[in-house]
Amino acid sequence: MSTQPFPISLPVGNPMLTLSRPSGTIFQIELHNGDDSRLTRTFLEEGFMPLLDLVEEEWRRELKAGKGEAALVIVGNTKQDKFFSNGLDYENAIKQADFFPMVFNPWVKRLLTFPMPTVCAMNGHAFAAGFLLALCCDYRVLTAGRAWCCFNEVLFGAPLPPPFAQVIKVKLVNPGLVRKCALEGHRFVPKELESEGVVDVLVDGKSRDILQAAIELAQSRASLAKPRVWGKIKEELYREVIIAIDEGREVRRPAKL
User: Fold this and answer.
1) Domains of the chain (ranges, CATH numbers)
2) N or C: lower Cβ tally within 10 Å for the chain?
3) Using one digit for the tens of pLDDT, what is the confidence trace for 151-196?
4) DSSP run (H or E) holding 22
5) DSSP letters along 58-100, please?
6) What pTM did the predictor assign?
7) In this predicted model, what pLDDT tens digit does every residue of 21-80 receive, in sequence order?
8) What separation in angstroms does the CA of 208 have from each of 76, 111, 141, 205?
9) Cellular component per GO (predicted)?
10) Torsions phi, psi of 152, nearest 5?
11) 143 has which bridge partners?
12) CB 230 within 8 A of CB 116
């Protein structure tokens, strides 16, 4: 039996994410920072990261009890069908010198190497860091309807932080696809991502249909968490990303003239 009083919504007093358990082996995090779920400092630092900690703590307790089959599903706000995530609150993020090295980058590392299968239920558009979130998951289920996915930094003059670039390279692999994504800001539609193998399943329907398909996929992979090596293997697969994150951990200060 779970030791946690699910569902759990964080941050306390200003809930932006909710953790629930659709079944005994599935954890589910729903993003609901408004309709488009911007990834703000508060959202990541006081919501997302603590919920990932709770999921792992609960799973490790269950491992000790001889269980341990588990997977995590991440879905956009299910009260709408337009956005998975619209990315960072960029203007505020770049005003904070420590945001990327101390908040965003550690979150990327945590999600990318999470110790159980992760499935992203993309129920709408995924822009910039929202698309990065999806790529950091192990599997992706996407609406077959209207949904654009892209890194549009090149279009508004923002350089790609090192972890962004590294994740794009290790997840998209194909040099032509990487160029199209990072250097051209191409808006991928669902069929393109499916044909390139970036998305595992396309689903016709509303948010609830995308979520249900993601839960079914997660359920089929949950047994892979039990041997306790899922996260360790990902640490090796994505070592280039981890190195880029660890190298940027220290906040850089302007050199004195």
Assistant:
1) 8-247 (3.90.226.10)
2) C
3) 999 998 888 888 899 999 999 999 999 999 999 999 999 999 999 9
4) none
5) HHHHHHHTT----EEEEE--TT-SSEEE--B-HHHHTT-TTII
6) 0.94
7) 999 999 999 999 999 999 999 999 999 999 999 999 999 999 999 999 999 999 999 999
8) 11, 23, 12, 8
9) peroxisome
10) -100, 15
11) 203
12) yes
CB 148 within 8 A of CB 199: no
- The two three-digit tokens of residue 16, written as one number: 């932006």
Q: Which two tokens stand for residue 119?
A: 């499935």
Residue 61: phi and psi, rounded to 5, are -65, -40
- The CB-based long-range contact list for 33-37 (8 Å cut-off, 24+ gap) reads 34/77, 35/77, 35/79, 35/80, 35/82, 35/83, 36/77, 36/82, 36/83, 36/85, 36/86, 36/125, 37/76, 37/77, 37/83, 37/84, 37/85, 37/86, 37/130
Task: State the Cα angle at 36 between 9 and 90, rounded to 5°.
Answer: 100
- CB distance 2 to 26 below 8 Å: no
At 17, give phi and psi (nearest 5°): -145, 150
Query: 58 with 26: CB under 8 angstroms?
Result: no
